[in-house]
TrEMBL record:
<keyword id="KW-0143">Chaperone</keyword>
<dbReference type="GO" id="GO:0051082">
    <property type="term" value="F:unfolded protein binding"/>
</dbReference>
<dbReference type="GO" id="GO:0005739">
    <property type="term" value="C:mitochondrion"/>
</dbReference>
<dbReference type="GO" id="GO:0051087">
    <property type="term" value="F:protein-folding chaperone binding"/>
</dbReference>
<dbReference type="GO" id="GO:0046872">
    <property type="term" value="F:metal ion binding"/>
</dbReference>
<dbReference type="GO" id="GO:0009507">
    <property type="term" value="C:chloroplast"/>
</dbReference>
<protein>
    <recommendedName>
        <fullName>20 kDa chaperonin, chloroplastic</fullName>
    </recommendedName>
</protein>
<dbReference type="InterPro" id="IPR011032">
    <property type="entry name" value="GroES-like_sf"/>
</dbReference>
<dbReference type="InterPro" id="IPR020818">
    <property type="entry name" value="Chaperonin_GroES"/>
</dbReference>
<dbReference type="GO" id="GO:0005524">
    <property type="term" value="F:ATP binding"/>
</dbReference>
<dbReference type="GO" id="GO:0044183">
    <property type="term" value="F:protein folding chaperone"/>
</dbReference>
<dbReference type="InterPro" id="IPR018369">
    <property type="entry name" value="Chaprnonin_Cpn10_CS"/>
</dbReference>
<dbReference type="InterPro" id="IPR037124">
    <property type="entry name" value="Chaperonin_GroES_sf"/>
</dbReference>
<comment type="similarity">
    <text>Belongs to the GroES chaperonin family.</text>
</comment>
<dbReference type="Pfam" id="PF00166">
    <property type="entry name" value="Cpn10"/>
</dbReference>
Length: 217
């Protein structure tokens, strides 16, 4: 899964998701239709409201408002990992945006749901889905061993502590293989993998287990 990178913007998840700004037009469902039933392995999510003001009360232009990537599941297809009412976090550019009764929704594949995060909970409480792993990123060092200041994005470490793991990867026969990584382990992961979040001074990333390169002992 491609990392969401760019400027740090605060979303209505209560986090800062590292992402770039983009606009997509939602498909309006005609008023005569009262419901949407997801097909296959899809879920319908009612998107959290966007923030219309900064923390200081300044109104934000529409294009400057950060797009939420969280919402409540309001419709289910043939899925196993989420249920109606779950508040989920999903990949930013995934799915099809729908306008239903004046509210913004997104129709997602279950695969695009990163994890379940009840409203008000901190990102450390995220329950990753499938073969995903939630990692609290290590703090970047301010200097090299030789005393040279580190200032670029490329100097950011790609290791951290495993905070939570999903149920595991499902094979073609429907068998689920539990993750090999354990909560509490310190791991190194692929540099451009996953979806990043910031919360206060802490940084987190959700990656696939296959993007874990090694465990440090």
């Amino acid at each position: 899964m491609q990392a969401l990178r760019g400027s740090s913007l605060r979303s209505s998840t209560g986090l800062k998701a590292r992402s770039s700004t983009a606009c997509r037009a939602a498909t309006a469902i005609p008023p005569k239709f009262k419901g949407v039933k997801p097909a296959g392995d899809r879920v319908l999510v009612k998107v959290d409201k966007e923030e219309g003001k900064t923390q200081g009360g300044v109104l934000l232009p529409t294009v400057a408002q950060n797009k939420p990537t969280a919402g409540a599941v309001v419709g289910l297809g043939d899925v196993e990992l989420v249920k109606s009412g779950d508040r989920v976090v999903y990949s930013k550019y995934a799915g099809t945006e729908l306008a239903i009764g004046g509210d913004e929704h997104v129709l997602l594949k279950e695969e695009d749901v990163i994890g379940v995060l009840p409203s008000g909970d901190k990102i450390a409480k995220l329950q990753p889905l499938g073969d995903r792993v939630l990692i609290k990123c290590a703090q970047a060092e301010g200097k090299t061993a030789g005393g040279v200041l580190l200032t670029t994005e490329s100097d950011k470490p790609t290791l951290g502590e495993v905070v939570a793991v999903g149920s595991g990867k499902k094979d073609a026969d429907g068998k689920v293989t539990a993750p090999n990584v354990k909560v509490g382990a310190t791991v190194m992961y692929s540099k451009y993998s996953g979806t990043e979040f910031e919360e206060g001074d802490d940084a987190f990333i959700v990656i696939r287990e296959s993007d874990v390169l090694c465990e440090l002992a």
